[in-house]
Design a protein that fits this description.
single chain, alpha/beta, 4 domains, four-stranded mixed beta sheet, 14 helices, 10 strands
């Protein structure tokens, strides 16, 4: 057992790196001549064991196999002596346990033999469908960015992903296999491009033993899209342009909106309900006044409903007590409306969609630099606004300056928070990029 002194395994099993751990651990155990402790008699018959596992003992000896037969681990234990075999097996078990991540080791500390642990780990982590792992590797390769890393480290990560992919899909000259892989690559490309709302369907497809064809996947996606439409709220389909009516004209001055109670338009044309109806080249022309009402505008159609603002303010007021985000029950960090921030700075990933990698830093008021990891879309008043993704930030900041600019509104601080349309808003930056 001299060859087992100071024996350690270099790769730590964390769950998703099982294939790498398996290959390096198997090589290490073979090099020390103890791979036999992880084998069954059937595997040894298939030539998986080390050389010299055949018995040369006399025929008919107690506890030994006949000449030319492969000994099972139990027979080896009997022939070598229980104490020596058990001691060697425990050394292998200790080496395997030392290569497990603490979170995994806690679940398998009860295992008593090396083979039992080896088989248990294979059953939990090794039976994962190759399709799922291939999809994960392709996704990792598609999203891989250097992001300021040293090139050697970056290339090592890049090469490691490709090496694992080549193990899962070794080179082949079989025409049928090549055609099947081409079909799989098309399906993988489609699944990678789907929105996050289809992730449940993606995971369901990857559970299949055989990946469906591209046409079958498209049919599944269309069914999923149709079923999602059944559970949506009030549809805006009824409010799509109905074409011009001819034969008479309507005096818009006599129209009163049932929603915002303002004159000049009907409810089905209300910009508050349907912001997409607002002309892209529209600019407000009103002048702001801090009078009794707190809001003044030259166009009565351009006022956000007070009830909408009440809901927003009540939600913000509850943040300190609930500790939850304004937009999602999964948010753990508070959302703060900041008059000094130059950009929306979001820490909770759940609040953002379509996040793209982006570098840089944000310097906050105390001089501390916070790393920018990406830029995504933040939905506010049914409009997508650009926001910086800073996972290391302690809060989620909504910039009044940026909101006023993107929503084309002016923020007035009085007894209530009011929004009126304006050209621009200038605030002193406390945060800069």
């Amino acid at each position: 057992m001299e060859n087992l002194k100071y024996f350690t395994l270099t790769v730590v099993l964390k769950g998703n790196n099982y294939l790498l751990w398996y290959r390096t651990t198997k090589t290490a155990l073979r090099s020390r001549g103890v791979w036999i402790h992880c084998l069954s008699a059937e595997e040894m018959l298939q030539g998986e064991g080390e050389g010299g596992v055949t018995s040369g003992g006399a025929e008919g000896s107690s506890g030994k196999a006949k000449e030319g037969e492969v000994e099972s681990p139990a027979q080896i234990s009997s022939s070598k002596g229980d104490s020596k075999w058990v001691q060697e097996d425990q050394l292998v078990l200790a080496a395997l346990q030392s290569s497990l991540d603490p979170s995994i080791l806690a679940s398998y500390s009860y295992v008593e033999t090396a083979k039992e642990l080896w088989d248990t780990l294979f059953g939990v982590y090794g039976n994962e469908s190759n399709l799922s792992r291939i999809y994960e590797i392709k996704k990792a390769l598609a999203n891989l960015q250097q992001e300021g890393k040293d090139f050697k480290d970056f290339f090592g990560e890049f090469r490691g992903l490709w090496a694992e992919l080549e193990v899962l899909r070794p080179p082949t000259i079989d025409i049928k296999e090549m055609i099947e892989r081409r079909e799989q690559d098309q399906v993988f490309g489609l699944l990678l491009a789907l929105d996050e709302s289809y992730f449940g369907l993606v995971h369901h497809i990857l559970r299949f033993e055989k990946l469906p064809t591209l046409n079958q996947v498209c049919m599944m996606i269309q069914k999923e899209e149709g079923s999602k439409g059944l559970f949506k709220g009030t549809s805006e389909v009824a409010h799509v342009s109905k074409g011009k009516e001819v034969g008479w004209t309507v005096n818009k001055k006599n129209l009163v909106c049932d929603h915002c109670k303002m004159k000049g338009h009907s409810k089905d044309k209300c910009w508050t309900l349907y912001p997409h109806l607002r002309p892209k080249n529209f600019k407000g022309t009103g002048q702001t006044s801090r009078g009794v009402a707190g809001v003044a505008t030259s166009n009565p159609d351009d006022v956000v409903r007070r009830s909408d603002l009440d809901v927003l303010i009540k939600s913000i007021t509850k943040l300190a007590d609930s500790g939850k985000g304004l937009f999602s029950s999964r948010t753990r960090k508070p959302v703060i409306v900041d008059s000094g921030a130059s950009h929306h700075m979001i820490s909770d990933r759940e609040l953002l969609s379509e996040v793209e990698p982006h570098g840089g830093k944000v310097t906050i008021a105390n001089g501390q630099d916070v790393e920018i990891r990406g830029i995504g879309n933040l939905e506010l008043f049914k409009k997508k606004l650009k926001a910086l993704y800073l996972p290391d930030f302690s809060t989620n900041l909504l910039s009044i300056q940026q909101a006023a600019k993107d929503l084309d509104c002016l923020v007035v601080f009085s007894d209530m928070l009011k929004f009126t349309l304006s050209y621009s808003l200038k605030l002193r930056d406390h945060c800069r990029t």
